[in-house]
Amino acid sequence: MTAALTVAGSVLGLVRDQTVAHLFGAGAESDAFLVAWTVPEIAATVLIEDAMALLMVPAFSAVLARGTGPRPLVRGTLPRLLALLGVLTAGLAAAAPVLVRVLAPGLADPGTAVACTRLTALTVFTFGLAGYVSAALRAQRRFVPPAAIYVAYNAGIVGTLLALHGRYGVRAAAAGVAVGGVLMVLIQLPAFVWGMGRTHREPGAAARPEEEAGGGRDAGAPPPRRTDTLALALVVPVVVFTVGRQAQVLLERFFAAPLPAGAISHLNYAQKIAQLPMVMSLMICTVTFPAVSRALALGDRERARKRVERDLTLAAVVVLLGAAYVVGCAPAIVHVLFQRGEFGPADTTATASVMRVYALGLLGQTMVGALVRPYFSAARPTWYPAVAMGAGLLVTAAGDAATVGPWGAYGIAAGNAAGITVTAVLLLRGIGVHSVAVRARSLAPGLVRIALAATAAAGAGWALTAAVPVALAAAALGALAVPAVFAAVALALSAPELPSLLASVTRKAHP
Question: Are 112 and 170 in contact (CB under 8 A)?
Fold first, then answer.
């Protein structure tokens, strides 16, 4: 169900982007909306996907592992969170003109960007509440309502846009973002209210003698009731890491704003398509994250290590297979998805070229998303992920500044890929010291074999796309040929990961 709803949300996200492209093309008006879109992009990362989940899933998992219900934790944290979100939302709406000038100096239509930003600022409140509820439900192993939030969100945007674009233009898309945020909360609220009355205990947790004697979950773990100082020490590194990760988008928009109109739009559409494989791969880690948190809460580090290593391998297979298809069939994919209305052949060519460059960083994006979860699962403050993200951000900024002149949008995409890859390498090297003792050296050969298979598959897809003139046929044939070549090369290279994963899937499908 999580996979089905994730796919449905991604498909509706494509419909949303297709609708914007069809109605407004890739020009000044769409660029203005995409600058305002920076607010929900950052809010989704901080308040739903990363910071809120990394903080609250372990917190809810810990109280559930001890056998207490979630109500005391909710009473102690939710009112403060709502007050903070309200202040941030009001401040962001008031500061919209300044924000637009900082994010996109030289933008062709700043007035429209300011109006759209004031509407999208409402997502700070709604996304924060939606992310909190999602974390509570995931910790209780209830994944369906959280997986449905992007279905509701994108449906709200598309519906509002179609109903109001004739009167309000691209501002209707920003209003749809606000409506979608409200729907995110409403679709989860019944399950959240029902779950507040439940009490859980992890099997075997009641017999732990150190708990009965007043000890922690494992040696050196903080007591169940943390002080405000410790809570702040846990929050700040997570928030800094998350903001640093999303700052890549801010750098992208900053460097692209002075380029010819449409550059921001080409980058955005390329990124949205290219990141679909990453979304599917990280779905695995989203579902298993509460299991890792509970294993650490119960002191079972060996189980946590095995789960993280398996997640990294499976996520790499999914994202590299998807990246091979994106790189090989990029022009056909963009043509099928977007080339209609105001989005013409030149926009297709530019977007497909940028998308191929973006795809070079997909493995890094996935590794960062998968690795950071165990770093923050152990309920101990650590600044290492934020430092690693800062190093990657410096690489991104330097790369963008050096290449945007000669290469334009392609240089920006290359800087993004290089920066996130550096962060992934640093996180993989440091995880054994700072978190779960993942055996990075033993994982590396398998990742290399999978990457070689993906390279061969991408080459096959590229040749096929060049040989088949009809875009729809090329995209369809590529969807068959790329996985076939990927599997054949992976097996020829004796990659043990692929057959073992296929056998695991078969066993689960036919127990």
Answer: yes
Q: Is residue 243 part of a domain?
A: yes
Same domain, 148 and 70: yes
Residue 15 resides in a domain: yes
Give the DSSP per-residue string, 8-20: HHHHHHHHHHHHH
Least confident of 206-215, 233-242, 377-386, 444-453: 206-215
Together in a domain, 254 and 374:
yes
SS3 241: helix
**136: containing domain:** 1-201
Coil, strand, or helix at residue 178?
A: helix
- Helix runs in 140-170, H state only: 144-147, 149-168
pLDDT tens for each residue of 120-144: 999 999 999 999 999 888 888 888 8
Rounded Cα gap, residues 402 and 415, in angstroms: 9
CA distances from 227 to 212, 383, 411 (A): 21, 19, 46
Tokens at 52, concatenated: 């809120």
Asked if residues 359 and 276 have their Cβ atoms less than 8 Å apart, the reply is no
Q: Is residue 220 part of a domain?
A: no
